[in-house]
UniProtKB/TrEMBL annotation, chain A:
<keyword id="KW-0411">Iron-sulfur</keyword>
<keyword id="KW-0004">4Fe-4S</keyword>
<dbReference type="InterPro" id="IPR004452">
    <property type="entry name" value="LutB/LldF"/>
</dbReference>
<keyword id="KW-0813">Transport</keyword>
<keyword id="KW-0408">Iron</keyword>
<dbReference type="InterPro" id="IPR017900">
    <property type="entry name" value="4Fe4S_Fe_S_CS"/>
</dbReference>
<dbReference type="InterPro" id="IPR017896">
    <property type="entry name" value="4Fe4S_Fe-S-bd"/>
</dbReference>
<keyword id="KW-0677">Repeat</keyword>
<feature type="domain" description="Lactate utilization protein B C-terminal">
    <location>
        <begin position="415"/>
        <end position="487"/>
    </location>
</feature>
UniProtKB/TrEMBL annotation, chain B:
<protein>
    <submittedName>
        <fullName>Lactate utilization protein C</fullName>
    </submittedName>
</protein>
<dbReference type="Pfam" id="PF02589">
    <property type="entry name" value="LUD_dom"/>
</dbReference>
<dbReference type="InterPro" id="IPR024185">
    <property type="entry name" value="FTHF_cligase-like_sf"/>
</dbReference>
<dbReference type="InterPro" id="IPR003741">
    <property type="entry name" value="LUD_dom"/>
</dbReference>
<dbReference type="InterPro" id="IPR037171">
    <property type="entry name" value="NagB/RpiA_transferase-like"/>
</dbReference>
<feature type="domain" description="LUD">
    <location>
        <begin position="48"/>
        <end position="209"/>
    </location>
</feature>
Amino acid sequence: MSTFLGMPAAPPRSPFGTGNLRGDRTFPEAAHGELRNDQLRHNLGRATRTIRTKRLNVTGELPDWERLRDAGSAVKTDTMNRLPELLEQLEQKVTERGGTVHWARDGVEANEIVTRLIRATGSSDVIKVKSMATQEIGLNEHLEAAGITPYETDLAELIVQLADDKPSHILVPAIHRNRDEIRQIFLDEIPGVDPDLDNVPAHLAAAARAYLREKFMTARVAVSGANFGIAETGTLAVVESEGNGRMCLTLPDTLITVMGIEKVLPRYQDLEVFLQLLPRSSTGERMNPYTSMWTGVTPGDGPQDFHLILLDNGRTAALADTIGREALNCIRCSACLNVCPVYERAGGHAYGSTYPGPIGAVLTPQLAGMHAAKNDPNSSLPYASSLCGACFDACPVKIDIPSMLVELRHQHTEQSGTTVEKLAMKAAAGVMGKPKLFTAAQKAASLGRVVGGRDGTISRLPAPLSGWSDSRDTAAPPKQSFRSWLASAEGAETMRAAADEGARLTAETPEEDQ
Amino acid sequence: MTTSPTARDTVLGRIRDALALAPTPEVTVPRAYRTGRTLPDGERLALLTDRLVDYKAQVHPCTGDDTAEVIAEVLRERGARRIGVPDGLDEQWLTAYDGEVQRDSADIPAPSLDALDGVVTASAVSCAETGTIFLDGSPDQGRRALSLVPDLHVCVVDLSSVVAGVPEAVARLVPERPTTLISGPSATSDIELERVEGVHGPRDLVVVIRTDA
Ligand code: SF4
């Protein structure tokens, strides 16, 4: 609660021990286990290669792609600056149009609200559209404990749910499964499925269609997330492919939408930017097959009882961090996962959180914190990167993930007293067969990443250069971007010296320590 | 059943605290991307057709006078004997069709639409560059369930309603209307990230583009 005397208090993280924002092993440990899974790496490598090519094709064909990214980035930054007024406006518009708005301080509270709303309808089951927010708060587990059966309707979520598995990708939660495995899961778990079902993707999709059809036609309550919520008009948008979203958003009497507070956009017009950025970055399509947009309740069309739950769950804690705040700009396209060499090798499960990959490595610690206790798996996430910068280049809203990783490493080592080098090496050893290659990549890449401290000096450099910067402060012009500083003679000189010294330090590190 | 005022005040208070703790400069959004584009009829038609075919939708260009014939032929080819239409659909469009037509109304339960062989609707706007058709629930497009539940969707697009890009299309929408963007038939990329047509939405999308309307 904010105080009345103008003394702001640091907002809390997502409560420890709730939801799905923390694994049970550190990243290097978890990644090491996954590395032995050849099938997983093969599946991931194949899928991410496919999507990378498609994404480059469809982003390359727009002459104004970079201008769209600039606009998208600025819209999100502007949104965060004006979050209170925008959320109040969204609430007002949704309410005017016949919807009900609820606020949830954390996942526990959101789960309780959803459960209460479902109980009020008398229904004992609910159909769900794929939603990161409800994954994050562990809604399904909560509903099951309360005697309500949630049916995931997105194909990949269905695969994950039927296999009692965990999602491993933002967009395609079952990306770690290939067609043969999916066929087997369907044969084992779908009642009455055709025993002759083969592994042709179209046939697998048809089996899912047949299985879920009856659920769509009879369900009375649906739970969804939202990709965007427009403050100006109260309009919510869900972007999808299969039509399961349309089914859930249209056929039941009651619709409950759980939306993180950072998903609000100021104007309806902003959709013209994000409806270009999101599909091209996520599935590599010019447009995804279906997008649904609705504003409150429309008499005679769709659910007549609509509830919007606005979720904090650590988002305000991220907002209170000048650098970490940028993670809230994420539109969950998953492009950064698909280009990340560490994600491709380790797989999504190694991150232990609903949010894997590069964005997960920065967002998860922002939302749930890096607990001071030793071995909090979240403390290992900022090291789950070679800082190669591919995520930054792919991100449609230009989130500087590498700089955030460096900042989080710094915050973590300040708390824990260990050195960045040691932890980075540990992560490298967990992920890469040849840790030396990893650190070499890290070293080359880190030339592009430093963070200027509050006193206007660059006081910390990413591993393995940080040993160098510990002993001397480097002046950094405060109002200059790092890139332009780097381009200056002074920047170039400083970085050359840092690189030389960093290279020497790394060369001296004995292999056993890795 | 309303919000606990405490949660609302708490979250808004936290946001204000966060912004006070980490103030950032105001930003102006640079909207230097392409807007207000126009393209000649032929180019819009070619572009939209190319995109739709790429999504594996069927495309039939025709003139306003041919509309009824083309629709009837499409339905005949697919053996659609019983179709649904929105209440406000132009009656002229169905004069050549000899099957059964169910005019939609709010008291027809949505699940019963599953028994229809197909649906014929008009459309509000289309975006050529992305191959996207926008339905907005107007009387000639009907409620959302109607164009969703049947497995065949025959969608009539007037070339005059086709615009070049996404910004031009968004500018034509009425935000308060329930709006559905359709880019090809239902599809999924969930199996090995390869696009496969045909999951829960209509598996068969036929677009009739009226080039003089
Ligand atoms: S951080 Fe950027 S690239 Fe990664 S999922 Fe979010 S929006 Fe996409």
